[in-house]
């Protein structure tokens, strides 16, 4: 099915470190598994995309997943002379969107993400899906349920490359499976209470909670600080990031800054 998604940058979004279930195929298309469904996406140019779903599924699932109801073009007005580095980041990452991901998968992925590169996280998430997730198509597995990971042995989890994160994954999955943490109900909490509730889970600190808030609950003031953003803040915002100026979109801007910082580093390294 051909869909027009004006201004959507599929490649940047897929490589932005939000989601670890995008795979780029040899023909340049992307394969994505999310919310128990698979999707093939091919950028046809000019804002048109070929998607392997029908209109009903697109309207019900993928429209919100790709946050297509939000006006991202309005962000460009924030790139003024007052913040030239942000202006450069907005130009570079134009079209990248914040995905609306499933909370449990996002929680597990970002517990795993600590002290791991994006390719390494992707391998771990893929192995978890392969070993413990339901097969939804030949060779394609959904992310495991909380129960599946709660029942998994430490040895089987370790075989997915989780390292010291095994007990964090196992214990957090068990708390969700047993209903002691209701990830669905957390969606109704204000930001501060949502963050505090997430941080009661093993392996979840401020950075992981912020990622889950931004990438699953779409709390757009959540501002995860990893090594890339820490470097950006030290180099370009030594007196602090002006959150008050960017209320309601600070998390989106964080992701643009993240993508731009990685791009700059790649250019400096000749990549």
Report on the structure:
- The protein is an alpha+beta fold.
- Among the domains are: 2-69, TATA-Binding Protein; 103-215, Endonuclease III, domain 1, CATH 1.10.340.
- Helix content is 44%, strand content 11%.
- The protein is built from twelve helices and seven strands.
- It has a five-stranded antiparallel β-sheet with strand order 1-5-4-3-2.
- The protein is globular.
- The mean pLDDT is 95.
Identify the strand order in the major beta sheet: 1-5-4-3-2
Bin the helical content.
Answer: 40-55%
* Distance between the ends: 35 Å
Q: DSSP strand (E) fraction? A: 5-15%
- Counting DSSP E segments of at least 2 residues, the number of strands comes to 7
Stretches with pLDDT under 50, minimum 5 residues: none
Instruction: Report the principal-axis shape.
Output: globular
- State Rg: 18 Å
Q: Can you say what the CATH homologous superfamily of the domain at 103-215 is?
A: Hypothetical protein, domain 2
Largest sheet: 5 strands, antiparallel
Which fold name is given in CATH as the topology of the domain at 103-215?
A: Endonuclease III, domain 1
What does the average pLDDT come to? 95
Order of helices and strands: EHEEEEHHHHEEHHHHHHH
Secondary structural class: alpha+beta
Number of helices: 12
Look at the structure and give the CATH class of the domain at 103-215. Mainly Alpha
């Amino acid at each position: 099915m051909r869909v027009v998604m004006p201004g959507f940058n599929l490649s940047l979004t897929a490589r932005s470190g939000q989601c670890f279930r995008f795979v780029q195929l040899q023909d340049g298309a992307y394969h994505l598994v999310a919310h128990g469904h698979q999707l093939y996406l091919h950028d046809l140019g000019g804002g048109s995309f070929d998607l392997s779903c029908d209109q009903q599924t697109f309207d019900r699932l993928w429209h919100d997943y790709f946050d297509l109801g939000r006006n991202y073009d309005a962000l460009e007005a924030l790139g003024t002379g007052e913040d030239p580095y942000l202006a450069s980041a907005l130009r570079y990452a134009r079209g990248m969107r914040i995905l609306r991901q499933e909370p449990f998968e996002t929680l597990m992925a970002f517990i795993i993400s600590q002290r791991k590169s994006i390719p390494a996280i992707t391998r771990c998430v893929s192995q978890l899906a392969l070993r413990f997730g339901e097969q939804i198509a030949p060779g394609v597995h959904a992310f495991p349920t909380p129960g599946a990971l709660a029942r998994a042995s430490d040895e089987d989890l370790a075989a997915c490359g989780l390292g010291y994160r095994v007990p964090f994954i196992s214990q957090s999955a068990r708390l969700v499976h047993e209903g002691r943490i209701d990830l669905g109900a957390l969606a109704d909490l204000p930001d501060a209470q949502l963050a505090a509730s997430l941080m009661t889970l093993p392996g979840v600190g401020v950075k992981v909670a912020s990622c889950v808030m931004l990438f699953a609950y779409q709390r757009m003031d959540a501002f995860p600080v990893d090594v890339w953003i820490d470097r950006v803040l030290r180099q370009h915002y030594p007196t602090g990031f002006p959150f008050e100026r960017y209320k309601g979109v600070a998390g989106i801007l964080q992701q643009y800054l993240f993508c731009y910082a990685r791009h700059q580093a790649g250019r400096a390294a000749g990549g």
